[in-house]
Design goal:
Shape: elongated
Largest sheet: 5 strands, mixed
Order of helices and strands: HHHHHHEHEEHEEHHEE
Number of helices: 10
Radius of gyration: 42 Å
Length: 385
């Protein structure tokens, strides 16, 4: 209110100076001008005080009242000036009728202009209410270049982000349930076998205890591998990879050496090949785990007597690794889900492994800022050098 009064007083002072310079009024004219200016000033301040003290239920109503008040103030100044000019009654009535028409037209214009504003504000409020009720498909549908349009676009963007987050939450919840179900299944199967074996031993119903002990040991090893895989997957997804300068080609050589006994069982020949500088900033332990998983899969699903190669290529900004074999390759329908948890290439051989090998590989590679994919002759990935 203080700002309004100050602004009005400043404007009146400027107009008094203008009137002095333009009219060079006499003493009586000056008294009339001061009276007119004073009356209009008081009316303006009172109107401003009343408008600021009111709390309108709708913005459209407030805009219309403000527009009408502005016109009334201007018309009042003209009317007071006309009355002070001592013109005849006919001319005075003409001026007042013209002013009345101007006020009516101004009100009609205010209603017309503010109708679109209030309609868009109602749509904005309706969209916000719908979002509050859980409807993330709603949009404001407002397209205008002013502040209301900016607010509407911001609301629409917010709704889109909320919808994306909700969809992601739904996917994560479904993945969590699938993950728990798969873990439960993979734990239940070996545990059931262990329990059955132990019960058979307790009841002295085993003809060949040595063979059963070997089977029980294999079941315990399977549980251990599953727990190790789950631990590694949790570590990778939590961003727990360390970084150090390692030679990826040397890790490939160590992997081939470690997997040689496994390859010998199926008479598979392992080889490595390196080209260029293959040093990268990586977690040696995690990367070795990736190479072992990929080589193990290549041995397991390739033909007996075949060959498996680990080809490492250094580049300007990345090191690429390809694990190739002579198998038939992954089916097209399998490639889309190959890196998902508990996905197995051959469901009939589900007891061989946890189904987490490729998921761990993807997690490790992506944690290093790289990319892994299914190639026609095997699996390939790259990590930054």
């Amino acid at each position: 209110m203080t700002r309004l009064a100050g602004a009005v007083v400043a404007l009146v002072a400027v107009w008094l100076i203008v009137s002095e310079l333009a009219m060079q009024p006499t003493g009586s004219d000056r008294v009339a001008l001061y009276g007119i200016f004073g009356t209009v000033t008081v009316a303006t301040v009172l109107a401003g005080w009343w408008l600021r003290s009111r709390r309108f239920s709708k913005l459209g109503t407030a805009l219309r009242v403000v527009a009408l008040s502005s016109v009334v103030v201007a018309a009042s100044a003209v009317a007071v000036s006309a009355l002070s000019m001592f013109i005849n009654t006919h001319d005075l009535n003409l001026v007042l009728i013209a002013l009345g028409l101007g006020v009516a037209l101004a009100l009609a214009l205010a209603v017309s202009v503010t109708s679109s504003i209030t309609a868009d504000l109602d749509r904005l409020a309706a969209a916000a209410a719908a979002v509050g009720a859980g409807d993330l498909a709603v949009r404001t549908g407002i397209d205008r270049p002013d502040e209301i349009g900016d607010a509407a676009r911001t609301v629409d963007e917010m709704i889109e982000r909320l919808a994306a987050l909700d969809a992601e939450r739904t996917r994560d919840e479904a993945a969590r349930k699938d993950f728990l179900a798969a873990v439960s299944h993979d734990l239940r199967t070996p545990l059931a076998a262990l329990r059955a074996g132990i019960e058979a031993l307790e009841d002295d119903m085993v003809d060949d205890p040595g063979r059963l002990y070997k089977a029980l040991s294999s079941g315990i090893d399977a549980l251990g591998r599953l727990i190790d895989d789950l631990s590694m997957l949790a570590t990778v997804e939590a961003g727990g990879v360390s970084t150090d300068r390692v030679d990826v080609a040397e890790l490939a050589d160590e992997t081939v050496e470690a997997m040689a006994p496994v390859a010998a069982v199926r008479q598979v020949t392992l080889r490595t090949e390196a080209d260029g500088a293959t040093t990268a900033t990586a977690d040696a332990t995690a990367l070795s785990r990736v190479l072992r998983n990929l080589v193990d899969n290549a041995i397991k699903y390739g033909p007996d007597g075949g060959r498996v190669g680990v080809v490492t290529t250094g580049g300007v900004d990345r090191v690429t690794v390809r694990v190739v074999d002579e198998g038939a390759g992954f089916p097209t329908e399998f490639r889309a889900t190959a890196f998902d948890r508990f996905t197995r290439y051959d469901a009939a051989r589900s007891s061989e492994g946890s189904g987490l090998g490729l998921a761990i590989a993807r997690g490790v590679v992506e944690a290093h800022g790289g990319e892994i994919w299914i190639a026609d002759d095997g699996v390939a990935f790259w990590i930054p050098a």
